[in-house]
Design brief:
alpha+beta; Sulfite Reductase Hemoprotein, domain 2; Sulfite Reductase Hemoprotein, domain 1; 5-stranded antiparallel β-sheet; 10 helices; 23% strand; globular; binds iron/sulfur cluster
């Protein structure tokens, strides 16, 4: 973490429920304090293994990768959280502990026309230099147009390389994901960092709680266009949506590859992550990066090595096949890990996945009505409730549930309904 991002005076401060947890401000959950980190770029494999070891020493050994590709460490305590933070800082692992600036995770991809991590770094430094005071959940996405798409991540400011030919351009948009963000214009790559910081400054000037989506909805884009000035060409543009798979083999520069494996329902034991990192290291990999869709990337490795590493990851319980039925289910931490959980979401998810055929996304299991794991309508949802659980058809947990069932009936009902939908598909 760079010096300007380090706020030692708030280390160990408890994060209020409802705000984003950080390393320096962990959040209370059902199994103790939870710390979240946004790693800013690939991490040396030994450093990652040491981070996992620290999570095991100071937390309860459970680690998570979120749908946005953030790292979470569970089961910290008031005493151990500051020690964990100190241990991580001693490792010199780059991460954002304030405004998350998420860059494309793969290094030096041949199709990438600019270096997303360098640009992300420039933006972080710009935020720090101008001491911008932004709302707690403001974030920035810097997507190099490579194979790991960041289209699924909503952000206040999005920079996406749209043309990696001889004249690359960066598409700039506000307040949404790849589909929903409001396009603002295009910038030259060398000016994109300045544009992003100017846009964030305009957002900060809109108020301490301002989010880009709300400002655009109420005022339009005028304030932001003024802030970007002549660094931005306002020709209408929207980058094409990409459907990228994070699991599997990804080509890097030359003949090198990276392999992506996912954590089942986003969670793994620190010991299994350490084992995977060590096996990858023994096979020549020297870095680990985190990606959306709860994915861990390891590289650089050769194509043949990737096969052996995939087999080892499978044995350790990681998801190595994009068609794995566990990927058909989004499940939150649930009970007992989350204090708000009425049902053990991940335990239910694992039992249901064992009986599901391969197929597309089918089910959301939410420990309560907050819907952390999938805040959108899902084909089917099991939502924990005080009475047991509810099944919701084709809607979001935030809308009115249709009927109640007892937990004991759930697995039979869900397996029957998903199987019937598979037959009808
Ligand atoms: S949805 Fe799940 S993780 Fe989110 S608050 Fe409810 S029980 Fe906790």
């Amino acid at each position: 973490m760079s010096a300007e991002q380090h706020h030692s005076d708030d280390r160990g401060t408890r994060r209020p429920r409802g705000a984003c947890p950080r390393l320096s401000e962990p959040m209370e959950t059902g199994d103790g304090l939870l710390a979240r980190m946004v790693l800013s770029g690939p991490v040396p494999i030994e450093g990652f293994a040491a981070l996992c070891a620290a999570a095991r020493t100071h937390g309860n050994g459970l680690m998570e990768i979120t749908a946005r590709g953030s790292l979470q460490v569970r089961g910290l305590s008031d005493n151990s959280a500051p020690r964990f933070a100190a241990a991580v800082e001693a490792l010199d692992i780059p991460f954002d502990d304030h405004v998350p600036v998420v860059g494309s995770p793969l290094p030096a991809h041949p199709r990438a026309g600019f270096n997303a991590q360098d640009l992300a770094s420039e933006i972080r430094n710009g935020i720090a230099e101008r001491a911008l005071r932004l709302a707690p959940k403001v974030s920035v996405v810097v997507d190099d147009g490579g194979p790991i798409s960041l289209d699924g991540l909503a952000a206040d400011v999005r920079l996406v390389l749209t043309d990696s030919s001889s004249a690359p351009k960066v598409s700039v948009s506000l307040g949404g994901d790849g589909d929903t963000a409001t396009p603002l214009g295009v910038s030259q790559p060398e000016r994109a960092g300045t544009v992003a910081v100017n846009l964030l400054a305009a957002l900060a000037a809109s108020g301490a709680k301002a989010r880009a989506r709300d400002v655009v909805a109420h005022e339009g884009t005028e304030r932001f266009l003024r802030a970007a000035g002549d660094h931005l060409d306002t020709a209408p543009t929207r980058s094409a949506a990409r459907t990228a798979e994070t699991i599997g083999l990804h080509r890097l520069a030359g003949s090198a590859c990276a392999i992506g494996v996912a954590l089942p329902f986003g969670q793994a034991q620190a010991l299994d992550l350490i084992a995977l990192a060590r096996i990858a290291g023994a096979n020549g990999a020297d870095w680990v990066a985190l990606a959306p869709q709860r994915t861990l990337l390891l590289g650089p490795i050769g194509e043949m090595t990737a096969f052996a590493l995939g087999t080892a990851a499978d044995t350790l319980g990681f998801i190595v096949d994009s068609r794995d039925p566990r990927r058909r289910i989004a499940a939150c931490a649930g009970a007992p890990a989350c204090r708000s959980g009425h049902i053990p979401s991940r335990e239910l998810a694992a039992r249901i996945a064992e009986r599901l055929p391969q197929g597309t996304f089918a089910l959301h299991i939410s420990g309560c009505s907050k819907g952390c794991a999938y805040p959108r309508p899902a084909p089917l949802t099991i939502m924990g409730a005080e009475q047991g659980a509810r099944i919701i058809d084709g809607d979001s947990v935030r809308n009115v549930p249709t009927n109640d069932v007892y937990t004991d009936d759930l697995i039979e009902q869900i397996v029957r309904r998903v199987a019937a939908e598979n037959e009808n598909a």
